[in-house]
Amino acid sequence: MPTKHEQILQHISSLGIGNKISVRQIAKNLNVSEGTAYRAIKEAENQGLVSTIERVGTIRIERKKKENFERLTFAEVINIVDGQVLGGRAGLHKTLSKFVIGAMQLDAMMRYTEADSLLIVGNRVKAHELALNEGAAVLITGGFDTDEHIKRLADEKQLPIISTSYDTFTVAAMINRAIYDQLIKKEIVFVDDIATPYDQSFYLYAKEPLERWYQLNESSFHTRFPVVDEKNRVVGMVTSRDIIGKDRTTLIERVMTKNPVVVQAKTSLAYVAHMMVWEGIEVVPVVDQSYTLQGVVSRQDVLKALQQMQRQPQIGDTIDDIISGNIEVLGDDQSAFQVEVTPQMTNQLGTLSNGVFTSLMTEASSRLLLQFKKGDLVVENLTVYFIKPVQIESKLIIKPKLLEAGRIYAKIDVEVYNEQKLVGKGLLMAQLI
């Protein structure tokens, strides 16, 4: 039987797109406490089933597929521009394919305005009406209102008309930034991208005898299984090491390892990889906020994903991507690297930022380790000394030196030069993956 938490999530999933949801309403309809309803609604928000908008409330939205990363819903636009809905609330779940800045004559404006687009315009009521009739939503800048018949038209067409206090240029920049951020987020691999889902996972119940472990082992060839209670909450892990010499009638709860390490669906791949190396773990259960089993992720899953990531082109460039693209080997010296300081690497004073300085040392150290076929690194500790500021367009020489390298750990000394003068030093301790 599903828990109250699961019942609420199922109820929210069954609601129509655009329905408004409240904690009090859910608690009353399903006869649960408001605290339970609140936690379930937050979980639904994490899963992309609902969206909470200031001054609007929580509404049921269509869960976006990951490949639609370049599109935003109108509900998300409200959050981005700190707007308020004037009409057409039922269409907040819809996505916009493009936005048009209405800084032109009406006839020219309408040539660019089409269905599923967003017209960004000031207090031009005729433009609001024409856009809605074309199937486009409207974002009014400058904090202006619109006529009542426009609001009624928006409700009728189920197309949001939104007002924001920001100016047109600022709004366009904010929406562009949000789309760019989603491009970067698309490249981040999370646990739910690689995990084996619940209905395909092997697990044991705490009250079962060890005989059940042998049956699962024979059918799956696995030796490590999550252990759950009667509500499917993870309470332990059991491995072949735990059952050696134990009677097959012994209950699993007596031999399992309690309080196992778990992860959630939105845990990043990098964190899981680091944790598996650090803890020496082969399999990690994936749980939700109530510790209910959602699936499992294995070391093999992580390794395959890491290999796949290295073959994928990056779409949204982070600062690490910019550093990686600019740093190169210095001539024939495979243990030294050079890089030119670009505007993106500087702070507001026009000098190399401390964060980028650290990233340059880490990237050079990582490339040095790859030359020794030691694998990728996860920084455990990095001590950095900034000796002199580095100006924009400076050409830096980075010289990492491997002091010590074992099977799991590496210690690297890094020196950074500008015009043959030492500008920084670092000592890096890392784990190897």
TrEMBL record:
The keyword S-adenosyl-L-methionine does not apply. Signal peptide: none annotated. This is Thioesterase. InterPro entries: CBS_dom, CBS_dom_sf, Diverse_CBS-Domain, DRTGG, HotDog_dom_sf, Ser_kin/Pase_Hpr-like_N_sf, Thioestr_dom, WH-like_DNA-bd_sf. Keywords: CBS domain. It comes from Virgibacillus oceani. CDD domains: CBS_pair_DRTGG_assoc (cd04596), hot_dog (cd03440). Residues 195-254, 256-318 form the CBS domain. Gene3D superfamilies: CBS-domain, Hotdog Thioesterase, HprK N-terminal domain-like, Winged helix-like DNA-binding domain superfamily/Winged helix DNA-binding domain.
